[in-house]
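Person: Please work through this fold.
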Amino acid sequence: MTNTNMELLNYLQSFLTENRKATFEKILEQRTRHLTVVLEDIYQKHNTSAVVRNCDIFGIQDLHIIENKYNSYVSNQVAKGAQKWIDFYEYNQEEYNTKDCINTLRAKGYQIIATTPHNESCMLQDFDITKKSALVFGVEKEGVSDYIINQADGYLKIPMVGFTESLNISVAVAIILQDLTTRLKKSGVNWQLSNQEKDEKRLDWAKKTINNVDEIIERYVSIHG
């Protein structure tokens, strides 16, 4: 983070209440990029919105959305404003966006984990939390694409003992994230955001919180250059 942005952050924090700043700090301590969530062609906006809410609740900072067949939408009524606090990465510019997403995540050091009840999937309780992992979820009926299955570094499934073998995607995401983030926090893994990443989110969240922030920043720049 540049000195200019740090100075701007310090200035903007003067417009925040102590309670708001304390809330930011409490939440930042629980945020992670050690795990990230990928949604592949989810067409029902209430499912996407519920996943957004799950990511915020369980401290996942980044959500990657692949749009090959469908455009994704977030309903504020379902997401409850959670979309303000996490970072979205949308893949919809290429002929086949799944490949673009996978390449991007691998370049950031993530292993690709397909969530599927099929194949030789690892049971949730046995999953190795030490590696940076991108958890890919597909639509409830079809699951993730064959491309993801073929490209995945591993497979993950939730233990089920009933006649059915699939859960609503938002429920599956919640179960998996609750288990993995709980285990992460009890581990010796360096799962938290870096100091620089925390500063970047402090600035981002401050901008999203302060009324008339564009005018305030413009006035600040005119004075400080």
